[in-house]
Design brief:
5-stranded antiparallel sheet, two-stranded antiparallel ribbon, 30% strand, binds zinc ion
């Protein structure tokens, strides 16, 4: 049974799926890559270049077994992400705006394809309304809840250079950074 952790799905993979996942992760920027801390610029051209980028992101998200991926995670500083708004559906949102947030919030352990091996608790609104454009420049609007609302908020954060370790409690942040530090030194 798969468990969704923010952007990451934790599930048993066979050897071939695992190899494909590793190849995808190798193409996704990993903490502490500077691109992850940068704010992305709005999308102003809905052209083939954008559609190619989005196709690549969808493929990487699927191969990495994620439920969301932002352009900043592939080193492109444009405000666009792909995510799963419902089971087995993949959507594109450019220039996303969260226009409504529920007062009700939930604290859930969240992971990130760019910060492997780290899970931290994050409080987020349980339901949101998300608006933006698709890859052809058409208006899109999503009423989201639960893990789907969480994934969209996680991706919107990426476009502002905000990571899960910036959103969590001070204690969880300290533990996560301690876990990440040795890796940083070695690489
Ligand atoms: Zn992430």
């Amino acid at each position: 049974m798969a468990r969704v952790e923010g952007e990451v799905v934790d599930e048993e993979l066979d050897a071939e799926e695992e190899a494909r996942r590793r190849l995808a992760l190798a193409q996704i920027r990993q903490y502490p890559d500077v691109a992850l801390k940068m704010a992305a610029r709005p999308v102003d051209e809905f052209d083939d270049e954008l559609r190619d980028l989005v196709e690549r992101m969808k493929r990487l998200m699927r191969d990495a077994h994620g439920i969301g991926l932002a352009a900043t995670q592939v080193g492109v500083l444009r405000r666009v992400f792909v995510f799963t708004p419902a089971k087995d559906v993949v959507a594109v949102v450019a220039n996303p705006e969260i226009v409504e947030r529920s007062e009700e919030t939930e604290i859930v352990e969240e992971g990130c394809l760019s910060i492997q091996g780290v899970l931290v608790p994050i409080e987020r609104p349980l339901r949101i309304t998300l608006e933006g454009k698709d890859e052809n420049g058409e208006d899109v609007r999503f009423e989201l809840e639960d893990i789907y609302a969480r994934a969209a908020q996680h991706e919107a954060d990426h476009l502002d250079g905000v990571l899960i370790i910036d959103r969590t409690t001070r204690e969880a942040q300290r533990e996560a950074l301690a876990l990440l530090r040795p890796r940083t030194v070695i690489s």
